[in-house]
Amino acid sequence: MEDKITTLLKNIPKVEKGKKVVLGIDGLSRSGKTTLVRNIEEHIQEKDIFSCVLHIDDYIVERERRYSTGNEEWYEYYNLQWDVEWLKENLFKRLKESNELKLLTYDYNSDSQKLCSVKVPDTCLIIIEGVFLQRKEWRNYFDFIIFLNCIREERFKRESVDSQNNIEKFEKRYWKAEDYYMKTVSPIEQADLVIQN
């Protein structure tokens, strides 16, 4: 794995003094994004490179804004799970401008958002991981995007037993949204690097 990460990092722009490089780790649910981010983090810490990791799922909206809205379930997941424009203005546009981001962060226990601060060093690799990162509103803010490609059957095996027993939700909500993303955005073709996982 160490050799793979070294090779992978040679492909992305170098983090030079006073520079912020924005790396996107895109991929559908359970494709291995979080594991890859952890491996990259460990590797660059050994090289004394600062990193700032942001998980796009930390910034979803409250349930009432994304469930039972009158729209189809896949539409809710793709278009309403996040406030896409708010994140564009307050996260993506400010990544390289600011040393501190004020982000509405979702709390699963209370089903609410609260404003949290994220420090971004002057020199660092900013890693953003999550689904649907290459949507048109966000794509141009990345310096480099890796897409983790993994077949649906394999990804579904990685879900919890409870989740697997609720296959109808996957069919109506998640998979239809994923199909829409793959068809309309073409993330594999757009990515700078594709990893078969």
TrEMBL record:
<keyword id="KW-0418">Kinase</keyword>
<protein>
    <submittedName>
        <fullName>Kinase</fullName>
    </submittedName>
</protein>
<dbReference type="InterPro" id="IPR006083">
    <property type="entry name" value="PRK/URK"/>
</dbReference>
<feature type="domain" description="Phosphoribulokinase/uridine kinase">
    <location>
        <begin position="22"/>
        <end position="196"/>
    </location>
</feature>
<dbReference type="GO" id="GO:0016301">
    <property type="term" value="F:kinase activity"/>
</dbReference>
<keyword id="KW-0808">Transferase</keyword>
<dbReference type="Pfam" id="PF00485">
    <property type="entry name" value="PRK"/>
</dbReference>
<dbReference type="InterPro" id="IPR027417">
    <property type="entry name" value="P-loop_NTPase"/>
</dbReference>
